[in-house]
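Propose amino acids for all 748 sites.
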C-alpha cells in the first residue's frame, strides 16, 4: 500500500517524531492481559444451556442431572435469579436467563458454574428443558403481517433509558424514524422528467474481531462486584448492571482489561449478568469465555437490511426529490442498540453526501427470531452507501451522464443539508471527488477492465470526558483516564497530544487506564470520537499544567526544557523541582464535545473510492487490479495508527463487500458458524491500495484532528459493485459480491 498527498502532522516537532504505541510493548511481548487471561484464586467456569429453537415456550426445566455432574457448584435458571430480569443499552428487552419463552436459537436458559470448563459445559448439556415449539418469524416483512406472532407482547413494561420511547405502529417494531423536508414530494415526483427506483439488500455480518467475548466476575466480602470484560464502554456497563442487579453503581467496579478487536460491536456484552448471579450463588469468582461458534451463532451482528430508493431527477441530472424506505432486521432483541430510535446509527438513515431539496425518509427496525442486531463499524453507513452509490451510477447511465459529473452536480456544498439532514461546515466532498477523478484518469482501465467509484462520509463523534494528570517531583507525569482503548491507539493519542501541549518528550508521560472506581467518567470508545474528545481533554489539562509551571518558574517550556528570558535553558526535571518544591501537582481536565444542533454541526470527513476490476464471464470470478482511496482528514496525531485505520478500514470494507455473510436456514439456524465457513479477508485478499490524504484544517479535534476509524470502510462495497457492473454489464443488488452471484447475473 502506498500513500500520497498532503497530510502534515501538526502540533510541533514532538508529534512529528517516531510513534511509540503506549500499549505496544505489552501486546507484542505477550504481557498484556485480556479478559480470558484473568484467573483469580478459586475460579469457577461458566457455561450456558441454550435454546435449540428460534421460538418456543419453556414448559419445564430440570437441573437435577446437571447438578450431579462432578465439579458443579451451581446451576441457575430464571427462577433462581428472579424472573423478569432483562438488560440492554437503551431498551432492556433481553432476559438474563429466558423465563417463559425463547426468542432465538442460542437464548440462554440456564447457567452453570463448575470447577473446570469441561465440567461446566458437560453439565449445561445435562439440563433438561421441555419446550413447546412456536411458529418462528425469520423474515422482518412477515413479522409485520396480520396474525404474525408478537415477540414482545409485554414491551411496554421494559425499562427504557431514554426520555420516552417513541410510539410504534406495530408491536413487532423495535424502532422507527421518519423525516420529511421541503415541499410536497409526491407532487414533485409526479411532474419530474425522470424517476428512478432501485432496491438493495445487505446481509448480517459479524464484526470480525479475533478475541471472542469473555467475562470474569468476582464479589468481595463487602459485596463489591469486580468485573473484567472486553466491553469498551465500562461506565455504561456499570450503570446497566446496577439497574439489573439493584446494587448501587459504586458497588460495581469495571476493571481494566485489554480488548482484542472491536470494530464497533463491543459496546454490548451480556455474559456479565449471569456470571454475576453465579458468583453470588457460589461465593467464588466466575469466568466465561465464548467460542467463535458462540459468536457466529447467537451474538449481536450487523443488521441485515432492505433498502428502496426513489429519486426524481430533472433533464440535466439535478436531484429534485427523494424517497427512501429502509427496513432493518433487528433480531430477537433491541438490547444491543444504544440509540434513542433503536436503529443502526442514530436514526437508521446515514448521511448520504448529496443535497436533495425535498426528502421523505422512512426507516424501521423489526423484531425477528434471529440473533440481535448491533452497531458494527460505521453502523448503517455501509448499507446505505452501497445502495446510494449504485443508485447514482444507474441514474448516470440512464441519463448518459458521466458518473463523476452527476456526482459533482449534486454533492453537498457549504450551507446545504445532506439527504440525511446533516448540516456540514466546509464540506470537502467536491475536492475529494476531483482528486479521485484525477487518480482514475491518470491510469485508464485497459481493455476488459473497468473502474467503479463511490463517495462516502462520516461524522466525528462527540461526548463528555474527563481525565487526571499527576506531575511527580521527578518530572514524570501520570495521565489517568477511564478510556478503554479498543485497539485504535487512543492512549497514544492522549500521550502525544499532552506532550505537544506541554512541549516535553512523550516518554515522560505514563498513560494508565483506571477502573470505574478510580478514573473519571468517559463515554467509551465509539462513534469515531476518541481522538476528538480525549485528545481535546488532554490538550486542556496540559495547557493548565503548562500555565502553572511557567508561572511558577518564570520560564517557558520548549523542546523538553525550561527556557529563561535570556535564552538559557535548564532541564525539565530542574524546572519541575523549582516549581513544585518537591510536591506532586494534580490537574483535572474536562471536555464536552457534544454537538447541539445545526449551529454546532461538528466535523465530517469525506472519502472517495475507485476500484479497478476484470471479470471472468465463464466463472463469475473477478480480480481487483487496483484501488484508490482519497480521504479528507485533519491533523494526524498518530501517523502509524492513522495509516493502519485508513488501510485496515479498507480491508474491513472489502470483507463486507466480497466475502462476509451470516447465512440462516428456514428455522433461523446459522449454517456457517465457524471461520472455516464465514470468510474474513486476509492480507492475500487485499489488493494494491493507493491512499491520497487531503487535509482540511481548522476543525474541533486537538490541533485540528478529525476522525479516522470509520472513515475508510463504508464506500468499498459500492465502488466494487459499480466496478463489476461496468466490467461485466450486470448489476448486483445484494451483498456479498461473490463470484457465484456474478455468474448467475451474467448467465441469467
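Proposal:
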Amino acid at each position: 500500500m502506498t500513500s500520497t498527498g498532503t497530510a502534515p502532522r501538526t502540533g510541533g516537532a514532538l508529534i512529528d517524531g517516531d510513534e511509540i504505541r503506549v500499549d505496544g510493548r505489552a501486546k507484542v511481548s505477550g504481557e498484556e492481559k485480556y479478559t480470558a487471561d484473568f484467573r483469580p484464586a478459586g475460579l469457577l467456569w461458566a457455561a450456558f444451556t441454550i435454546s435449540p429453537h428460534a421460538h418456543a415456550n419453556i414448559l419445564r426445566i430440570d437441573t437435577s442431572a446437571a447438578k450431579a455432574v462432578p465439579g458443579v457448584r451451581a446451576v441457575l435458571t430464571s427462577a433462581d435469579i428472579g424472573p423478569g430480569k432483562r438488560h440492554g443499552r437503551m431498551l432492556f428487552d433481553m432476559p438474563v436467563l429466558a423465563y417463559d419463552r425463547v426468542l432465538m436459537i442460542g437464548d440462554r436458559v440456564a447457567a452453570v458454574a463448575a470447577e473446570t470448563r469441561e465440567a461446566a459445559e458437560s453439565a449445561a448439556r445435562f439440563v433438561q428443558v421441555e419446550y413447546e415449539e412456536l411458529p418462528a418469524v425469520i423474515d422482518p416483512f412477515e413479522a409485520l403481517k396480520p396474525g404474525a406472532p408478537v415477540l414482545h407482547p409485554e414491551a411496554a413494561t421494559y425499562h427504557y433509558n431514554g426520555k420516552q420511547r417513541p410510539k410504534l405502529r406495530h408491536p413487532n417494531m423495535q424502532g422507527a424514524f421518519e423525516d420529511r423536508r421541503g415541499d410536497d414530494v409526491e407532487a414533485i415526483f409526479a411532474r419530474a422528467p425522470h424517476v428512478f427506483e432501485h432496491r438493495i439488500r445487505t446481509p448480517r455480518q459479524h464484526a470480525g474481531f479475533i478475541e471472542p467475548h469473555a467475562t470474569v466476575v468476582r464479589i468481595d466480602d463487602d459485596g463489591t462486584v469486580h468485573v473484567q470484560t472486553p466491553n469498551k464502554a465500562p461506565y455504561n456497563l456499570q450503570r446497566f448492571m446496577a439497574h439489573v442487579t439493584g446494587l448501587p453503581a459504586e458497588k460495581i467496579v469495571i476493571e481494566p482489561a485489554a480488548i482484542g478487536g472491536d470494530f464497533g460491536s463491543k459496546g454490548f456484552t451480556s455474559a456479565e449478568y449471569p456470571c454475576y448471579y453465579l458468583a453470588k450463588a457460589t461465593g467464588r469468582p466466575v469466568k466465561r469465555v465464548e467460542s467463535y461458534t458462540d459468536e457466529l451463532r447467537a451474538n449481536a451482528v450487523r443488521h441485515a437490511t432492505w433498502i428502496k430508493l426513489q429519486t426524481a431527477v430533472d433533464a440535466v441530472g439535478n436531484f429534485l426529490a427523494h424517497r427512501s424506505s429502509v427496513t432493518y432486521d433487528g433480531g430477537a432483541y433491541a438490547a444491543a442498540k444504544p440509540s434513542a430510535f433503536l436503529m443502526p446509527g442514530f436514526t437508521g438513515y446515514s448521511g448520504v453526501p448529496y443535497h436533495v431539496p425535498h426528502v421523505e425518509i422512512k426507516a424501521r427496525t423489526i423484531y425477528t427470531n434471529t440473533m440481535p442486531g448491533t452497531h458494527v463499524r460505521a453502523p448503517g453507513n455501509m448499507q446505505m452507501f452501497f445502495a446510494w452509490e449504485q443508485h447514482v451510477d444507474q441514474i448516470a447511465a440512464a441519463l448518459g451522464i458521466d458518473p463523476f459529473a452527476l456526482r459533482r452536480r449534486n454533492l453537498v456544498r457549504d450551507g446545504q443539508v445532506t439527504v440525511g439532514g446533516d448540516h456540514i461546515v466546509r464540506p470537502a466532498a467536491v475536492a475529494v471527488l476531483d482528486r479521485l477523478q484525477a487518480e482514475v484518469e491518470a491510469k485508464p482501465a485497459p481493455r476488459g477492465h473497468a473502474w467503479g467509484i463511490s463517495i462516502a462520509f462520516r461524522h466525528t463523534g462527540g461526548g463528555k470526558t474527563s481525565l487526571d494528570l499527576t506531575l511527580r517531583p521527578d518530572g514524570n507525569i501520570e495521565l489517568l483516564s477511564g478510556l478503554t482503548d479498543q485497539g485504535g491507539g487512543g492512549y497514544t493519542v492522549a500521550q502525544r497530544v499532552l506532550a505537544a501541549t506541554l512541549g516535553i518528550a512523550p516518554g515522560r508521560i505514563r498513560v494508565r487506564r483506571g477502573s470505574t472506581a478510580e478514573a473519571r467518567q468517559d463515554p467509551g470508545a465509539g462513534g469515531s470520537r476518541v481522538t476528538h474528545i480525549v485528545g481535546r481533554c488532554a490538550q486542556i489539562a496540559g495547557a493548565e499544567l503548562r500555565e502553572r509551571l511557567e508561572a511558577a518558574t518564570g520560564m517557558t517550556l520548549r523542546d523538553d526544557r525550561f527556557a529563561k528570558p535570556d535564552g538559557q535553558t535548564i532541564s525539565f526535571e530542574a524546572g519541575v523541582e523549582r516549581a513544585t518544591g518537591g510536591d506532586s501537582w494534580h490537574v483535572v481536565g474536562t471536555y464536552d464535545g457534544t454537538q447541539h444542533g445545526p449551529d454546532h454541526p461538528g466535523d465530517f470527513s469525506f472519502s472517495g473510492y475507485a476500484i479497478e476490476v476484470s471479470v471472468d464471464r465463464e466463472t463469475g470470478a473477478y480480480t481487483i487490479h487496483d484501488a484508490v482511496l482519497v480521504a479528507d482528514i485533519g491533523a494526524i496525531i498518530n501517523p502509524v495508527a492513522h495509516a493502519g485505520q485508513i488501510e485496515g478500514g479498507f480491508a474491513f470494507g472489502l470483507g463486507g463487500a466480497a466475502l462476509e455473510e451470516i447465512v440462516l436456514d428456514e428455522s433461523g439456524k446459522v449454517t456457517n458458524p465457524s471461520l472455516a465457513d464465514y470468510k474474513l479477508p486476509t492480507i492475500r485478499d487485499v489488493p494494491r491500495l493507493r491512499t491520497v490524504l487531503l487535509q482540511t484544517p481548522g476543525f474541533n479535534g486537538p490541533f485540528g484532528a478529525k476522525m479516522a476509524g470509520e472513515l475508510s470502510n463504508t464506500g468499498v462495497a459500492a465502488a466494487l459493485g459499480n466496478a463489476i457492473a461496468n466490467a461485466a454489464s450486470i448489476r448486483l443488488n445484494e451483498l456479498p459480491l461473490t463470484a457465484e452471484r456474478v455468474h448467475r447475473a451474467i448467465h441469467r
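The domain at 158-206+300-422 is CATH 3.30.365.10 (Aldehyde Oxidoreductase; domain 4). The chain has four domains: 35-136+207-298, 158-206+300-422, 423-458+605-748, 462-592.
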